[in-house]
Specification:
The complex is a heterodimer. By secondary structure, chain A is mainly beta. Chain A is built from no helices and 11 strands. In chain A, the strands form 2 sheets. In chain A, strands 2, 4, 5, 6, 9, 10 and 11 form a 7-stranded mixed beta sheet that branches. By secondary structure, chain B is mainly β. Chain B is 0% helix and 45% strand. The chains are: A mainly beta, B mainly beta. Chains A and B meet through strand 5 and strand 10 of A and strand 7 and strand 8 of B.
Chain lengths: 119, 111
């Protein structure tokens, strides 16, 4: 059974870069047919798709975040990462990593990690 | 606001059925049969309940069912139980370069 676990700082200063890593266990991240996603939920809001990556490195980003966003994959470590630059308080959210049948359903989710942007 | 519109809350008594709606547009729900539903209990990760409008993953109770008409998808939970109390989110593929959109979530209270 695949499991995903987010890790990274819980507090980031405004204008800095938010960096999170998702470690995948129980399955190779190089499995075909699935993408690896980042999804967030800001306080009081619904879920928001951030973007996803294929094991080959192909990425798809939410246009609203694209200019600040980089998602990368390290198949040797079976993990993928999120970098979001120039953060503001509006980026404060619960961040999830997930296994995604691109275009379709999210099959597995991490537990989520809360990131607060504050000085 | 969220791309897909869900009621903020619904409630029902044990044994009853409830339906949660998810309204989108011709960019998403109306055009694609790629609607999914998720359950999130407090402190837990979301769990997939329904995919491709009305398919259930292995292990999901047949008390959960999905449907779609026009730009509105629906999740029906029959035979309500206490542990159905949770938040429910819909999602759809979106063909306008966003790829995936979600609803704002619906809190289900079992009375």
């Amino acid at each position: 059974q695949v499991q995903l676990q987010e890790s990274g700082p819980g507090l980031v200063k405004p204008s800095q870069t938010l960096s999170l890593t998702c470690t995948v266990s129980g399955e190779s991240i190089s499995i075909g047919g699935y993408y690896w996603s980042w999804i967030r939920q800001r306080p009081g809001k619904g879920l928001e798709w951030i973007g996803y990556i294929y094991y080959s490195g192909n990425t798809y980003y939410n246009p609203s975040l694209k200019s600040r966003l980089t998602i990368s994959v390290d198949t040797s470590k079976n993990e993928f990462s999120l970098n979001l630059t120039s953060v503001t308080a509006a980026d404060t959210a619960l961040y999830y990593c997930a296994k995604d049948r691109a275009g379709g359903e999210v099959t597995h989710w991490g537990q989520g990690t809360l990131v607060t942007v504050s000085s | 606001q969220s791309a897909l519109t869900q009621p903020a809350s619904v409630s029902g008594s044990p044994g009853q059925s409830i339906t949660i709606s998810c309204t989108g547009s011709d960019n998403d729900v109306e055009t694609y049969r790629l609607v999914s539903w998720y359950q999130r209990r407090p402190g837990s990760a979301p769990q997939l309940l329904i995919y491709e409008v009305n398919k259930r993953p292995s292990g999901v109770s047949d008390r959960f069912s999905g449907s779609k008409s026009g730009n509105t998808a629906s999740l029906t939970i029959s035979g309500l139980q206490g542990d159905d109390e949770a938040e429910y989110y819909c999602s759809s593929y979106a063909g306008n370069g966003i790829f995936k959109v979600f609803g704002g979530g619906t809190k289900l209270t079992v009375l």
